[in-house]
Amino acid sequence: MTAATHSTLFPQVPETPDAVLDGLDPEQREVALALHGPVCVLAGAGTGKTRAITHRIAYGVRAGILQPATVLAVTFTNRAAGEMRGRLRQLGATGVQARTFHSAALRQLQYFWPKAVGGELPRLLERKVQLVAEAAARCQLRLDRNELRDVTSEIEWAKVTQTVPADYPAAVAKTRRDAPRDPAVLSQIYSMYEQLKRERSVIDFEDVLLLTVGILQDRGDIAEHVRGQYQHFVVDEYQDVSPLQQRLLDLWVGDRDDLCVVGDASQTIYSFTGATPDHLLNFRTRHPGATVVKLVRDYRSTPQVVHLANGLLSQAHGKAADHRLELVSQRDKGPEPVYTEYPDEPTEAEGTARRIRDLIAAGVPAGEIAVLYRVNSQSEVYEQALADAGVPYQLRGAERFFERAEVREAGTALRGAARAGRNDSLLDEAEGLPSQVRAVLSTKGWTSRPPAGSGAVRDRWESLAALVRLAEDFETAKPGATLTDLVRELDERAAAQHAPTVQGVTLASLHSAKGLEWDAVFLAGLTEGMMPIAYAKTDEQVEEERRLMYVGITRARVHLSLSWALSRSPGGRASRRPTRFLNGLRPGSTASGARSGAGGGGGIDRGTGRAAVERTPAVERKPRSPVRCRVCGRTLTDAGEMKLMRCEECPSDMDEGLYGRLLDWRAGQAALLGQPDFCVFTEKTLMAIAEAVPSTEGELVVIAGVGNRKLSRFGTDVLAICAGEAVDGEPEESIDET
Q: Who's near 453: CB < 8 A, 6+ residues apart?
């Protein structure tokens, strides 16, 4: 044997079937030996699930119990399938098929199509966006690139949930899904898209599954052929199967029970694509005699990281929470998670960059460090902070901020406006750099209010909003700065980040971090409205946000830092709150109520170890009572809802006539002051006034956005308007924005 043979790159193949079992813990060994009947493996994060199922297959093959060609192992990504094939080969189990659902279905479809349908299989449409655009055009609609992406995703969701075009609007209403367009319009585009595919004899990736299901349902002889070839099935990441994938799996398996599934309901974070953990959670109901093995020994993370992960899930609710796994770390003790509160986002990014630089200096490789955030638009401030600190980084699952299409388009528009100067009619009413930027970017999709829901339109808005915030911060740092100055600043920032891709710190969204791990993880931007995200309205959506944070925490092996900023910009109002998910977990906070039951103890009692808690100097928060909706009583977290004292969806009792008079009055006051309208009162504040119709100063001053200063300047006018009286007169002095 050469030295290379014993290296991790070329491990020695086990000499005997029993040698395959060497090194497995008792639960993993139980999985490997459970070769008959239905088997359900509930595997927590970092518990070695891939190791368990590959050793199970390899042991069965090496012991002669399973024939390699009769085993089909399916997972969800080509990377995962490739890793599974590699491990099986190292264990001496060659000939086993390890594929994605789509890859396995496509092979069967190509083989059986001539017999089942006749002729050649229609051409596979690798990218459906162009055809969706044509379908929209035939429906008299023109969609931009981001809208096309969202509509395409909706069509994919409809197909994997086996929803036909005519039923799409009802399905959206039933699931309370945030559709990117009117469901009736989307139904028309979906129907036209299907018609165009038929006209051109093409199929898409979802059709691969649908057509395979159709053939197996209609042709019993073909179904028996498939079942004769594949007699033993293994499904990884079973919590992510869609209804369509489950239907295909049922047809593959037939009335047999040689099925092993592996998953973790606490890592279900893709429900918006049609994934559901119900099949995993109901497995024992569908297969009463199933063997269920729980893997809870965590080999990835230190006890400190695992303790926090368990504590997070101890407060979860819903069906998935009832089946949660309480992990038990198998590693030596490590440092406590670090919780850091910053005054503003740039300071948070700079502090994170400093910590990362210190870790690298202490010997942690840059490639073993990650900064994880909720949405891709958060990356820009961390890109800049790491670049300023001289720390190499790479982006995963997203384009670099200045390479995003909407950012490039915005840069072109701003550059053109800067050259045109006052000759650009867009700038006629815009005073000051931020107002000019808002005016220009309003032509590219920026609005004062974010769009509802998630998806490409929201991502585009977030990128443009980041540019608006950058303009605001730039003017604060350089009073009197012009649009030309801002364009130069953007060019310099972009040029500094166009260096060749290097191996460095990973910047990634929480979704794109699934399945990965690092020595050190920084979870950033953990504020209400971002975690959980503002558009997570239902209990189910909020719980999925909790699971997303759980995935983030369990990516860390040793070092874990969690941070949040009290305001967006330096000097801004400290109105943000840390995520509710850390209540009872971070020192100094109060638990919202831990759950007992399936998963065991919680994570609120931190024992003898105390987590490191840090605050940047001069930042101290005063306790504040929760703001509740005056209609339904729900706790409010959105700033606009807090001003209205009600949920956006709750019925309004606003006096529309009064609101109109207040808007007209505000416009006149703003003109007299030479300031934007919102510096007098924001629209939300005026709406709140029109709903409350105050008659005294005491009733007016308690409305969010009024306060003593504005009460003294505008109170008399506002109360007069509320009383139906006419007002006149001018303010004595200008006011500052509050």
A: 178, 179, 180, 535
**Spatial contact of 628 and 635, defined as CB atoms under 8 Å apart:** yes
The pLDDT, as a whole number, for residue 358 is: 94
DSSP annotation of 76: S
List Cβ neighbours of 639 (8 Å cut-off, separation of 6 or more): 529, 575
The Cα diameter of the chain in Å comes to 97
- Quote the CA–CA distance of 56 and 32 in Å, as a whole number: 4
* CA-to-CA separations, 489 to 378, 391, 414, in angstroms, rounded: 19, 21, 12
Nearest CA to 505 among 404, 340, 395, 400? 395
DSSP state for residue 530 in the 8-state scheme = B
Which residues on adjacent β-strands are paired with residue 75? 100
pTM (global) more than 0.85: no
In angstroms, the CA 88 to CA 91 distance is: 5
Give, as one character, the DSSP assignment of residue 578.
B
- Model pLDDT for residues 457-490, shown as the tens digit of each residue: 767 887 888 888 888 888 888 888 888 999 888 8
Contacts of 727 (CB under 8 A, 6+ apart): 665, 716, 717, 720, 721
HEC sequence for 477-491 = HCCCCCHHHHHHHHH
Per the CB < 8 A criterion, the answer to whether 374 and 531 are in contact is: yes
